[in-house]
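Researcher: For the record, we're logging two predictions in this thread. I'll number them. Prediction 1 follows.
Model: Prediction 1, sequence and structure:
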Amino acid sequence: MVRHYTLSSEDLALINRRRGDPNRLGFALMLCYLRFPGRVLQQDEQPPAALCAFVAEQLGLDAAHFSDYAERDQTRREHVLEIETALGLCPRRGKAIGPPGFGSSLKGRHPPKIYGPPPDCK
């Protein structure tokens, strides 16, 4: 968890531009998910409690704030677009990859966006 989800000073600067603790924590978790496993947290998806606590601790926040993240779906979408730009990522549809059980919470949903730097991304 430390290797994939430790926030850099640049990450913290980007995260701290958000208004409100729930948006800072949600933005940070979205940033982490886009890096690894390389996908967007789906609407109403709850990240693992240990991950939420690990990221919240780095921000000096209570992990419970995540339950109030992105009450407006537009907020979540805007955060995804901003993070994609900041990380230089290009979304593409495809088969989700990740640890065992990764896709179990996604059954019945649209295929998640998978991120990577394909050469035709402009």
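Researcher: Logged. Prediction 2.
Model: Prediction 2, sequence and structure:
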Amino acid sequence: MSRMDVPPIESGRLSSLSHEDDDDLWEVHPEEMATDGEVCVRDVMTPAVGVISPDATVQQAAQLMRDLDVGPVPVCEGRTVVGMVTDRDLAVRVVAPGFDSHQTRVRDVMSTDIVCASENDRVVAATQLMKDMQVRRIPVVDGGHQIRGIVSLADVAVRQGNDQLSAEVLRHLSERGPGEELRVL
């Protein structure tokens, strides 16, 4: 996958990043920028985040997840976010079909249709984005799309003390869609 030139976003805006097509998409939402007195994503995010190259093997990704005790890892070319790989991606896209973890590359199993938050976004807006996209965490980038950290519902709940907002998003994420049933093997 080649990296297309993406126009920079203004700092303080929520950004939707998609690498599915040749046309990368960045949506800018000026109303989501934090103002004085509001809690920003940078105030609650985890700044020290492990990243992995799209050229790494999925075994290396799994080892990184184990070593850092995390499930998701941003995939970066340099410091530019190009995707995300999760422990679930490895289980469903590599282990279940029987692919070789020593040969399969992260680029072959990573999710490329991801959303990112800007470090200056309001926490409420980032949490709403997680709810809308049905994810529990999103990468945080600066105006040049460089990784700055990751923000999760746990970060919001613990650091901001907004248990009600986190519980609402988690409830929404946990709801099954129509026709989805719990399967027991």
